[in-house]
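Supplementary notes for students who missed Thursday's class. We covered one full example, reproduced here. Read the sequence, then the structure, then the short commentary at the end.
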Amino acid sequence: MILPAAAALLAACAAQPAARERSMSTPEFIRGEVRVTEHRHGDDLLSAGLGLAGLAGLPAPFADPLHPTPAELRRRAIQASWKGIADLGPLGGYGRVYGGAPDVPGREYQAFAWIPGAHAPHRVLLQLPDGFDTARRCLVVAASSGSRGIYGAIALAGAWGLPKGCAVAYTDKGTGAGYFDYADDSGAALDGARARRGEAALEFEPPPASRDAGIAVKHAHSGDNPEADWGRHVLQAARFGLAMLDRAYPQLAPFTPQNTRILATGLSNGGGAVLQAAGWDDDNLLAGVVALEPNVRVPGQGRALYDYATEAALFLPCALSDARFDATPFARAPGTQFWPLRCAGLHARGLLGGDTPAQQAAQAYERLRAHGWTDAAMQVAATTTAFDLWRAIAAGYASAYLRRGAADMPCGFRYAAMGPGGVPGVADPLTRAAWWADGSGIPPGNGIGLYGGTDLSPDPTLPGALCLRALWEGDGAEARALRAAVEATAARLPRKDLPLWVLHGADDGLLPTAFTSEPYVAWLRRQGRAPLYWKVPHAQHFDAFLPLPGFGERHVPLLPYGYAALDRLWAHLYEGRPWPRELPTPDARPRGAGALERAALGLP
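Structure (token representation):
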């Protein structure tokens, strides 16, 4: 317990933070200002004042859409991050069966951090609740999922940690929607607002180029292969969090891993990032790791994302046209009637045999099965294929791995603002002003198109897909460079006594377990580690897809299992509960046509 006099001093510090905080040291990897903002009285840390209903509602408005304020951008960025990760639909049970978004007042500390030798920074952010538990010091550190911005893990790390009295440190791990538009030479400043080159420090400022060079994206065009540094980004975010706690509570400083437990968590790319961090954690910063559906890779085992994404971009449209997928959600959505043309194109290039579309589709299906794809993964991947996500992922990642700029992406791809009729044009100023809040980090979307890699054939995207695949399978200098860049992203072995829990949906169609978590966990066990592993039945990759027709009936959300794992880690670290050697996988079952009930999750 804190003595009354100490509590009074802490309250005074919280009420008047600026003068004291400026006197505290800043980590050497931070360049420029640390932006400190207060969030109370209708503007909290977890939902920016929207509450759960507001998070699920229409996009938070801007009073002046051409010039949104930093507070408005933050509110909408938080809302977009929630909607991109969590199932907030009326049948999904969020806030009723699991999770919640209570009002959590507090402060935020945000800055640009730099990995040595990097061309671009990554954002770091600490959310410090007014109810921070000084008796049980807890810091949750998380990396954004996908290529999202700084709030991209708030529905996992923030929703679990902030109501518990933990501070939460985030990193965007070198991704995010700080898009740079060469048309007006502008990017995103620290507060999210648009600023021109030279007017402010920008999240991403690529080398100068002509006005028609299009849109530059930090993940794809920084020249840094950020994925190879995701673990370092997470560890810097943890150190930033400790330093900001020193600023906030100077009477209780220093905050160290010895007196402040650091719990790392993330999902998808964020899950891969915290597993990378576990391997790079030579200073024993982390007290435990919970990784959900991680994009993780072990050399010589499983498959790299770029490998199976380029394979999927080529062969899944054909395989999914097989009659066995007729009842699969989105496998017969508008636009998928052209998928048999992919069969014909692959057949013409000698990549498939068979004389009929049905025979060719069956061959494509058998090829994917032979390469490790399960029926469940292919069924769920119908959404990813219908949304053309495989090509978008492969084009962006190829550019990142080869360290290309906006004007020389591999295979002729480029990002540009979408003009009338979908042709390249100039960004709409209203859309551009909202990019930092609304963007997912990898276009297309939000008024930005992915162009190039096409021809005028009946299957126009096939040439680009073939070219991207050749970068994985080829023998040329570019292919060798790309594979070397992928090798640099491999996970390292964590220390033996680190509590580590991996959770993955058995039906994941974006990051199939057979390519990612299963070989990683098997490798850990062969190396004498004892990770917990839940391969959750009926869970897939995108909780946010569960409100889509046909999805929620067949699947369960993954977030409640992540919260449960974090609860168990908390009980181990703060209540002395033994860390188990193994735990039975929950007996999850689909919710069916009705609303989700707790029993369907199969949690103890």
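Commentary. Residues 230-248 form the longest helix (19 residues). DSSP finds 20 helices and 16 strands in the chain. If anything here is unclear, bring it to office hours.
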